[in-house]
């Protein structure tokens, strides 16, 4: 007898299918029928879990976004250095490339829809809070300049991470991981006075800022 | 009697409709039927001009991209300063926001399709060539540091422009034009030693690099 899959688990399962199909066929070709077929269930079951294709895409974006945020938060709390933390956000492996692809696809959804703009806002504000925390930590350990204002300057970090990812997304072959990291370090040096290997040894200093939900 | 519309003109007309519909409803909801209805013609006429929905989206992206490239090239050739040139690329007005929306939507198309990856590559290489030209010009007029290597550093300019646009796209209300320009100038200063008002007066020095097609 197949085990009973609960509501949240089923939604996550469908989100994975949505991410795969959007990557393989593009968001313009996505249909509920294809999602159901790939998930091995009927369209009426998919419709039971998601009110619409839009709802499905919002949930998929949110799932990937929250996973990326949780990964970054864990690394900050573990006292990882700046580049180690940011590296996990870049499209450096197959999973990262797929996640970024979903982000870009979702940024091309209709801005007039309140569900979409709410999820966009959650994404940018979640990232800014985490980047402010990360910059505060890197400032305290001496990896970046003492003159960095974590809250004020977090948006520059977002520009750098989103910007590098946009280059990789459109020209994967030219951007192996080493090149992404070299550009990242170069821009961290220019914008935050980052100096590689300048973190003080020992336990990390207490972290700044509130945790994101 | 209605005047005869030639092939290219009709394709441009349809591209405008595609851009509008993608902005209003999102790329996931785009149908050839809706495009035909909005363009005031039958689906078979749309199908005469475009082989597929994909073909339509590739052409629409290419049209907007080439228009942005031509605008930037004209400004470089007219000897406009660095920020004036870059300002026209940012999503600062309604048209710019719509163009950027189409770019992000298109970056979320399926990477496995050769037509799409060809158009992505044309976009990044066209922008890099123009940014290298722009940086060479700004270096010669003294707006940025003499140590900037235009060809090498053009990708940083692309990171900054794409990155700022990604923030605006997802949180328009927080990013009026002045704030976009302030962040742009700040990052130009950090990454290229930009100093506002430091261009030498008089005719611009000869431009660098080859023109893009």
Report on this model:
Two copies of one chain form a homodimer. Chain A is an all-alpha fold and 213 residues long. Chain A has helices at 7-25, 32-39, 43-49, 53-77, 82-87, 94-107, 114-140, 150-170, 177-192. The radius of gyration of chain A is 19 Å and the shape is elongated. At the A-B interface, helix 1, helix 4, helix 6, helix 7 and helix 8 of A face helix 1, helix 4, helix 6, helix 7 and helix 8 of B.
Helical residue percent of chain A?
Answer: 55-70%
Shape of chain A: elongated
Largest interface: A-B, 50 and 50 residues
What is the straight-line distance between the termini of chain A?
37 Å
The biggest sheet of chain A, with number of strands, parallel, antiparallel or mixed sense and barrel status, is: none
Task: Compute the average pLDDT of chain A.
Answer: 89
The tally of strands of chain A reads 0
Q: Helix count of chain A? A: 9
Write the layout of secondary structure elements.
The structure is a homodimer of 213-residue chains.
Chain A: H1 7-25, H2 32-39, H3 43-49, H4 53-77, H5 82-87, H6 94-107, H7 114-140, H8 150-170, H9 177-192
Helix pairs in contact in A: 1-2, 1-4, 1-6, 2-3, 4-6, 4-7, 6-8, 7-8, 8-9
How would you concisely characterize the structure shown here?
The structure is a homodimer of 213-residue chains. Chain A has helices at residues 7-25, 32-39, 43-49, 53-77, 82-87, 94-107, 114-140, 150-170, 177-192.
């Amino acid at each position: 007898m197949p085990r009973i899959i609960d509501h949240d688990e089923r939604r996550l399962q469908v989100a994975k299918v949505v991410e795969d199909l959007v990557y393989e066929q593009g968001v313009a070709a996505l249909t509920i029928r294809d999602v159901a077929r790939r998930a091995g269930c009927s369209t009426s079951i998919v419709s039971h879990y998601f009110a619409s294709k839009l709802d499905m895409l919002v949930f998929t974006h949110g799932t990937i976004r929250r996973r990326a945020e949780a990964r970054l938060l864990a690394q900050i709390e573990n006292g990882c250095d700046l580049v180690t933390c940011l590296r996990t956000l870049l499209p450096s492996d197959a999973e990262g490339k797929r996640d970024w692809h979903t982000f870009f696809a979702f940024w091309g959804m209709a801005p007039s829809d309140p569900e979409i703009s709410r999820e966009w806002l959650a994404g940018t504000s979640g990232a800014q809070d985490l980047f402010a925390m990360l910059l505060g930590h890197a400032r305290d350990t001496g990896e970046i300049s003492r003159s960095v204002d974590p809250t004020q300057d977090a948006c520059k970090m977002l520009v750098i991470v989103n910007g590098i990812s946009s280059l990789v997304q459109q020209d994967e072959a030219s951007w192996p991981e080493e090149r992404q990291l070299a550009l990242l370090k170069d821009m961290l040096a220019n914008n935050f006075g980052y100096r590689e290997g300048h973190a003080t040894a020992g336990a990390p200093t207490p972290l700044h800022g509130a945790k994101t939900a």
